[in-house]
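Predict structure. Chain length: 196.
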Amino acid sequence: IVIDDVNVNLTFSDLKVPQTVTMNVVDEDGNSLDDMVDISWSSVKGDNRQSGKSYPLQLSGNDIQYDITIPKDFYFTYVKPEHGTYTVQESGNNLTVTLKKLPMYAVEGRVMSSLTGQYITGATVTASQTIDGVTKTFNAKSNFQGQFMIKVAGIPTDITFSADNCVNSIVSLNQDMIDGATDSRIYAGMVPVKPI
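Prediction complete.
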């Protein structure tokens, strides 16, 4: 507003009070994760960037966006949060975002010799999975009946089976198998490994 004359009265019919938007990040049990995550804010145009739990001086009706970043150590614990938008309200701008646990699946089956059909004891079962450049390896062994159970994250992956004096076998865990899991269990069936 530019006022050229000193003796002018102005009447405002509607003034917006700047609001502070705050965010709490919790897990599915309601435990605070605020100390673990980084929160960044900006306008929807991408300007006025700030970091921290709160975003002050926002006018009601404006759309803002936020990003939550979790440490790499937790990539296999929580589903990576998606970019979010929020419309600033006239009051009560306290957001709570719940991070979901990354689903884990038990892959089960039996390792057997492709020549004799006998179960293989002590076969090594390995799954290396990568999420956003972070790799984690899961391992298991087959028991005396060739049975194995390995827990893996719910993303497509190859599971490698190796045993002494045998050629490695690979079972691909695809999205259809994950989607068809019952009670977070996937049955891989009989896994043949070929003796050398």
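Summary: The mean pLDDT is 93.
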